[in-house]
Amino acid sequence: MTHYFTNDPNLKSDEKKITTYIGNQEFTFFTDRGVFSKKGLDFGTRCLLETIDLTSIKGKVLDFGCGYGPIGIYIKKNTDALVDMIDINHRSLHLASLNAKENGVDVHIFESNTYDQVTGQYHFIITNPPIRVGNEILYQILLGAKEHLVSGGQLIFVMNKDQGAKTAIKRLSESYEVEVLDKKKGFYIICCTNN
């Protein structure tokens, strides 16, 4: 079985174009096999994006594990922030680049294995983290964000209650000031401030 956070050169491409609404805005995305949520925008990412207070998003934003790009593209479309988007999956990076052009946004997309190619500091890191990587790497991502956030910067992410959201809140509270922004159908939108 292949995972969306690995590269499988033998996986045949089957690119599709989908249209979706986030809030009241229409977006068009190319998706493909081997990327997360290829059939359309997943409920968790939708909750995350529709919960974020766009008026607060300024400075530099990192879309971690961008997949085919809905988070970074939505943020760039609706704010003046400088947006970087990273993923380890080559197909995701290709699609994110196509989708940035398709939706008329100027973002910086590059390959990174967790944060190994990330330099500089961000005001926001926004992600629907790859739960299937397992807890060790998951917490490297969530706790590692702290090193790449300015003082007062925020990690904003979505996690389902059944995938350990309550445990994550408890664990992250040791390193961040943690607030639950919203809960929808078991999905927690969690904001971690780097103080």
Explain the overall architecture.
- The chain has a single domain, classed as Rossmann fold (3-Layer(aba) Sandwich), CATH 3.40.50.150.
- 25% of the residues lie in helices and 32% in strands.
- The chain has 5 helices and 9 strands, in the order E-E-H-E-H-E-H-E-E-H-E-H-E-E.
- It is globular, with a radius of gyration of 15 Å.
- The relative contact order is 0.15.
CATH topology: Rossmann fold
Mean pLDDT: 92
Q: What low-confidence regions span 5 or more consecutive residues with pLDDT below 50?
A: none
Main β-sheet: number of strands, strand sense, barrel status?
7 strands, mixed
Number of helices: 5
The CATH class designation is Alpha Beta
**CA distance, first residue to last residue:** 40 Å
* Helix share, percent: 25-40%
- How would you classify the helix and strand content by structural class? alpha/beta
Radius of gyration (CA) equals: 15 Å
* Widest beta sheet: strand line-up: 5-4-3-6-7-9-8
CATH architecture: 3-Layer(aba) Sandwich
Tell me the number of strands: 9
Shape: globular
Q: Could you state the order of secondary-structure elements as H and E?
A: EEHEHEHEEHEHEE
How much β-strand is present in the residues?
A: 25-35%
Keywords:
195 residues, alpha/beta, Rossmann fold, seven-stranded mixed beta sheet, two-stranded antiparallel ribbon, 5 helices, globular
Layout of helices and strands:
Blueprint: E1 16-22, E2 25-31, H1 43-51, E3 60-64, H2 70-78, E4 82-87, H3 90-102, E5 108-111, E6 122-127, H4 135-144, E7 149-160, H5 165-172, E8 177-184, E9 187-193
Parallel strand pairs: 3-4, 3-6, 4-5, 6-7
Antiparallel strand pairs: 1-2, 7-9, 8-9
